[in-house]
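Me: Here is a favour to ask of a fellow structure person. Could you put it straight underneath, so I can go through it closely?

Assistant:
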Amino acid sequence: MSKADERRDALATYLNDHLAGASGGLELARRMADRYRDGELGGFLDQLVREIEEDRDALREAMERLEIPENGIKQALAWAGEKVSRLKPNDAFLSPSRLSRLIEFEAMALGVEGKLSLWRSLESAGVSAGLDLPRLIERAVTQREGLERHRREAAAAVLGEV
């Protein structure tokens, strides 16, 4: 296998892994937006869902331009993984526990950090595939900042003043 083929295989795996992560993150963001509909938090989450959908669609379009097929198995596993993550052996097995909001914000923050790394890696590698990488990077930074603010609020509400 040539170096070019090895790089193409690595790129295909990398993009499919991030696409699966985006799909799982989108499921979590939708669930959070449905649960926390009120006030500023609800508005933030609704916008976050829209942006994650746009980012995932941008990644899909880039994969199409690069002629990299989607890995359906990874997509299905990401979807199932998000569903399974809802079942936790805690004090509220089938419903949200007091920690759910904090854990959800931490998971979303990790996902956005991964997405930011994706955009920056593509930029460093010179793989734009028609993506507006500076805009995507800026948006991911803004998402991360918003998630961090809400994560800190959730932490204070659940863990503060012990």
The chain has one domain: 3-159. The mean pLDDT is 89.
